[in-house]
Amino acid sequence: MRILQTARWFFPHVGGASIRVYQTARNLVKFGHEVHLLVHNPKSDVILSHNPPYLVGTSSWIASKFTGVPFVLNVHDVWGASHYSYLQYRIGLFLEKFCIKRVKKIIVPCKGLDEIVIRRGEINSTKIVIAPTGVDTNLFKPMNISEDIDVLFVGNLAPWSGAEFFVNAANKLLEKNKKLRFMIIGDGIQRKYLENIGHENISFMGTVPMDRLPEIINRSKICVSSFPKPESVKRETPIRPISTLEFMACGKPVIVSDVYGVRELITEGKTGFLFKPEDTKDLADKIAFLLKNKEIRDNVGKNAREFALDNTWEKTARILEKAITNSL
What is d(CA 96, CA 203) in angstroms, rounded to the nearest whole number? Predict the structure, then answer.
């Protein structure tokens, strides 16, 4: 089968969207399909469009109409109001509904997002397929190296990633123990602000190459995903973060916000720990608990690795492949 993928982001841009597009293409090629990215190809059997933004979806729909090729929409997120003007938000909503209503099949990465897409597009649930976000367990795997980082955060340094709550929790712990070492991987609009409020023992490393990330994760004792309450950032969409799965694939204990989407990755005390979103004391207490209990860290990390092995990009691509085939 020949598949045309359209997307806004791809490497060298670093982020979840680029990883999703790459891993989808890589695994579909491994299954024997021919995949084209951001290249109009009238000989394609299907167009797979990664959205938002829905300008990508709209252009894919136009290509579908001109070529007669079925159009499948991979929806990572719905259009939100958090960082757009009112006019941009309204236009985005219009294009979103336009694409959702006209597409053959819609792929979403987690439970909950399917219900939002159904409601926004006013469509039947039979159009939706859940293909859970996966992880590359060959790249992200346990390494036998020294753990010289106490706690690690990886993500976009913006309000919707909750990096500020990680920094505030780290500050609390460093007031009591200045020997602790915290590290933040990522960049974004809040970086300067976070550097200003953060303790000197919090290292801001910026964006690092993907091939270096597994080593940095393995050097860490604990990994944190500190997403805010959805209503705080006007976010409606459930999150199934790639970075959290990468932590787990490396066999690391994770502490994550108890918000929808993320919580489905965690069996409390077995594959990780949940904390009350935006509650820096709760986060700091759980970090302190794990730092004192290496045996628990090791056991939870082992279980996290097992969970990741059952949530690979290959498994995601198999579900997606079946959905695409059924749309032809």
Answer: 39
